[in-house]
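User: We ran a pulldown and think these components assemble together. Before we commit to crystallization trials, I'd like a predicted model of the whole complex to look at. Sequences follow.
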Amino acid sequence: MKKDIILSGVGGQGILSIATVIGRAALAEGLQIKQAEVHGMSQRGGDVQSHLRISSSEIRSDLIPRGGADLIVSLEPMEALRYLPWLSAEGWVVTNTVPFVNIPNYPDEKALDAELHALPHVVLLDADALAREAASPRSANMALLGATAPLLDIAAERLEEGIRAIFARKGDAVVEANLAAFRAGYETAKKQTAR
Amino acid sequence: MPKRELLLGDEALALGALHAGLSGVFAYPGTPSTEITEYIQGHPLAAERNVHRTWSTNEKTAMEEALGMSFVGKRALVCMKHVGLNVAADAFVNSGMTGAHGGLVVVVADDPSMHSSQNEQDSRFYGQFALIPTFEPSTQQETYDMIQEAFDLSERYQIPVLMRLTTRMAHSRAVVEVREPKAENPLSYPQKARQWVLMPGNSRLRYKELIADNERLELEAAESRFNHYAEGGDKRLGIIASGIAYNYLMENYPDGCPYPVLKISQYPLPKELVRRLAAECHELLVIEEGQPFIEQAIRGVLPEPLKIRGRMSGELPRTGELTPDSVRAALGLAPHRAHAASQIVVPRPPALCQGCGHRDMYTALTEVVREFPNGKVFSDIGCYTLGWLAPFHAIDTCVDMGASITMAIGAAHAGQHPSVAVIGDSTFTHSGMTGLLDAVNEGANITVVISDNLTTGMTGGQDSAGTGRLEQICAGIGVDPAHIRVVVPLPKNREEMKRIIREEIAYKGVSVIIPRRECIQTAKRHAAARNKK
Ligand SMILES: Cc1ncc(C[n+]2csc(CCOP(=O)(O)OP(=O)(O)O)c2C)c(N)n1
Ligand code: SF4
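Assistant: Here's a predicted model for the assembly, 728 residues in total across the polymer chains.
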């Protein structure tokens, strides 16, 4: 088993929590993990990415080679496209479709949409809306994680255990809301990946 | 079964140090080294043993505090980013001369590609320069294991050890197997007391010893389990790969590298192993993260006995971080097939947070400075450096911590007016106070803005050394209290701020304006921590 994943988004959106949950689940499954994170300057509203590698055998590089990623998982649509040169030919893009516009020259949203729809393997979801429906507007990242779950080769229950563990100290209500967002994302992706 | 934990390189180092019987960590924050100290601060074992773990004012004070702890026999760790070693350099280089007693390890995190830094300097040169043995791990597990050996080596040779991390090592997570913690050292005093007093007579004797030790340390490096020589069938090429670069090499040969490979993770560079590789192979390729430290050493200036390829010859990029792809190209392997880049993606640079007090400070300041034909703003290092970007375009310089006040002084002496310095509260206590004393003593006509957000914002909100005492500090240094002005940087106070800035620019002498409002990110964290209680 090997999954190379690029997580992307805008500083402050919460991509690292996604990585933490997947990392915990992979650790529980006895897998090898490497995860390169971005800290520091770029976290202030700039583009952020993390390379997450999971494998049943030894992982060498902390960075994923270009053309090597099985998945790009993004909290922001333009940020998903930024990493296309890392995606393998059979790789999937799973992305939130809600633009985060904090720059004056953000690309035309129709052009963005067209590029995303033209990708051969893509899951598109409004993670913000799914999180709101789950009564947890700040859980867009868990909705996105849910949408990634069918493509991960890690049991969804394992990921749910990870969510419980990282939100436990915030109380049951927060845990349940995040699980609801996760499940909503999962259902959305199930439909799109079943083609 | 050994315990397995998913740890950042920084965390693996921190945990390894705690398990090695650490008695104190001394550090000033700096990306990518900050998480080492933060991990120790949050670890129950550190609390149980009361390991020293509060932040120091700057890297030099940190280095000297650690040297004091080592003097009395306990194990001490110093952590900083690469440019921090410039600040600590006096103490660092002379700590090679005094030597260590209790294990002393100096961790320096380099930042190739300058993700969050002013330059790409490579700390291995400092290790060589100070004759201090240097370690450079390539995996998180190695980091955990190596820090313990570094303490042992430090005590065996009674010398500090430099441990060099790079951004990817520091900020990448992997599974690490951990062991049981060792006890701390008891108090004890150095046997060779004389070398701790670096008077010329003592230093001359000690320097000879240090040079002799360096030769023995090179033999240690040749035998080290962290350096190894792997045979390879194809002798057309021999590869030297150090630290994290070794991973990028092996990534490209999942079934094993066909060429002989010398992996280097401990210095002084074991010349014997390099000669063996050179004797066996037709060409050499040197793959190292950062500056061409090894490559330069073996290349020299005289004609090469064999072809050496690397960053200096252009096969690998001369600047920036290595990647598995740049290493692949240097190995002459075809690139992987990849998607074409999107043509509509644009850069998304970082910016000051919405609602940040630095924004209100810069809005008022730039409006006043633009009332003059040639106003200049000498700034410094911190979140507020982002004031260079749109929409503010507020600053003219950013060099090193503290350089705002001192450059403003120099410019004022040359006739510049207004000569304004903008510095953060943590940077002010790190390296700004001595400059302010110069300004007072020299009667420099400058206006200093200490933009006080009550925290060290850029590196994630660590406590700031002078919080609550900035006015007292400035007055103590000799700034006239009538020209120490505190304002609250909020949009509603803009006109008042502009009036005060105008008045203080008009004042002929040293004035200090302190816009004070808590960093909103730190405020959020503090509020969350209060709610938890
Ligand atoms: C010698 C040195 N040490 C550490 C750093 C890392 N660093 C950059 S900015 C900064 C903190 C700045 O804090 P402050 O001056 O309070 O400004 P803020 O970011 O809070 O606005 C640090 C620690 C550095 N660049 N140089
Ligand atoms: S982290 Fe704090 S100091 Fe830095 S930009 Fe954000 S609010 Fe301002």
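Chain B has a mean pLDDT of 97. That may be worth checking against your pulldown data before setting up trials.

User: Thanks, that helps.
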